[in-house]
Amino acid sequence: MAASAQATFPVFLLLLLSAAIAFVDGSSVDPSGEKFTHVHFYFHETRSGPNTTVANYKNLTSTPSFAYIGVFDNYLREGTDPSSTLLGRAQGVGVFAMPEGRSGLLTATEFVFTAGKYNGSTLTMMGMYAAAGEVDRSIIGGSGRFRMARGYSLSKVISIDDLRLVAKFDLYVKHY
């Protein structure tokens, strides 16, 4: 009997220690503390010229126009004007594939806020980009004011030419 008690004592101590750590840590999230935030900005991409913010790597395969990868570091601004207040950057990658006549651009984007009330925070967006109409993508994470973020993004191209692209973004985010 004494040997059995000695064998279970370390297990009991381990369970007790685990419970104490979980209690003291306090990192559990209170569901009642969840917030909802609407974030609005304009995405400015410079497509050519000396201050280009996007680079496309084409012809990754022997089949022309099958696939490419784009890397970007675009501006987030308060308005459509290129001189409007800078709110942050949109940094990420886009992967384009066109097998058998279907096309799609999968984007992974980190919105890095460097000014305003979200300064120092980030939101992460991922999803397929379609050039026409309104685009719906997922918000899959965040940091700073947007810890444990989840939600969706609606975007629409406002203007596009050979030099630049401007898109309107509305992010609808739940976070703690």
Automatic annotation (TrEMBL):
Transmembrane segments: none annotated. It comes from the Eukaryota. Its main location: secreted. Keywords: Apoplast, Secreted, Signal. Residues 1-26 form the signal peptide. One of its GO terms (cellular component) is apoplast. InterPro entries: Allene_oxi_cyc_Dirigent, Dirigent. Pfam families: Dirigent. It is found in: Secreted, Extracellular space, Apoplast. Coiled coil: none annotated. Gene3D superfamilies: Allene oxide cyclase-like (2.40.480.10). The keyword tRNA-binding does not apply. GO terms for biological process: phenylpropanoid biosynthetic process. Homodimer. Dirigent proteins impart stereoselectivity on the phenoxy radical-coupling reaction, yielding optically active lignans from two molecules of coniferyl alcohol in the biosynthesis of lignans, flavonolignans, and alkaloids and thus plays a central role in plant secondary metabolism. Belongs to the plant dirigent protein family. This is Dirigent protein. It comes from Musa acuminata subsp. malaccensis (Wild banana). The lineage of its organism: Eukaryota, Viridiplantae, Streptophyta, Embryophyta, Tracheophyta.
